[in-house]
Design a protein that fits this description.
The chain has 214 residues and is α/β, with parallel strands linked by helices. It is built from six helices and seven strands.
């Protein structure tokens, strides 16, 4: 399994492979120069955050409170990415190193609706989960020939557990029977992926309750 930094983009940031995520925060970004700057810095390996008064991470740069909030949001973007994407990469990389030596194994990643579709106010989460899905795809292509099954499971819906019922009590009460994902049912799908014959491996499964809209 290659290190993620073994092939950085041409002309990329010298710190591209460092521990911290490099973020290009572009204020007053419009459709012209701001957009071009965003594309170029993204090509260089940075996470790009575009901001203007009317689009992107909205902020009026004349207002101190809005500028402070903008930078706080940019920092939160990195934290979400580290939890939702980078942590998965590290876990998968170390698992793969050991499985390659054994000549077999299964690596299963858990995704969400945001893995395949961004939504308003969910840019950071979508970037993290979408990134994890791309990590899984890359690992599947690299490791499949080494007899290691890599799969990604999109979990779309509320998971039925104590924390969900406490934090989202009102919404949970409104759902019909079997309106949330049962943990044992999710676990069964993961098990079935693990024991799949390698002549018919699944890369991606999409789980949701029968009443969930999509």
């Amino acid at each position: 399994m290659r290190n993620a930094c073994s092939e950085k983009p041409s002309g990329s940031d010298p710190d591209f492979c460092g521990a911290a995520v490099s973020i290009a925060l572009i204020g007053g970004a419009g459709e012209g120069l701001g957009a071009a700057l965003g594309r170029r810095f993204a090509q260089g390996g940075l996470e790009v955050v575009l901001s203007s008064r009317t689009q992107g991470e909205k902020a009026d740069l004349r207002e101190e409170a809005e500028v402070l909030a903008l930078f706080d949001r940019a920092e939160m973007f990195e934290k979400v990415w580290r939890l939702g994407c980078y942590a998965g990469f590290l876990f998968g990389r170390e698992a793969a190193r050991r499985m390659i030596a054994r000549g077999k194994g299964t690596i299963l990643f858990t995704g969400a609706t945001a893995s395949v579709r961004g939504s308003s106010q969910f840019a950071a989460f979508a970037a993290a989960k979408g990134g994890l899905r791309q990590v899984a795809q890359s690992m599947a292509r690299e490791l499949g020939a080494k007899n290691i099954h890599v799969a990604h499971v999109v979990v779309d819906g509320m998971i039925d557990n104590r924390r969900t019922r406490e934090r989202m009590a009102e919404r949970a009460k409104e759902l019909p029977a079997d309106g949330m994902l049962a943990t044992d049912a999710i676990a069964e799908l993961f098990w079935q992926l693990h024991v799949q014959p390698r002549s018919a491996w699944t890369f991606e499964a999409d789980l949701r309750p029968w009443a969930e809209k999509f």
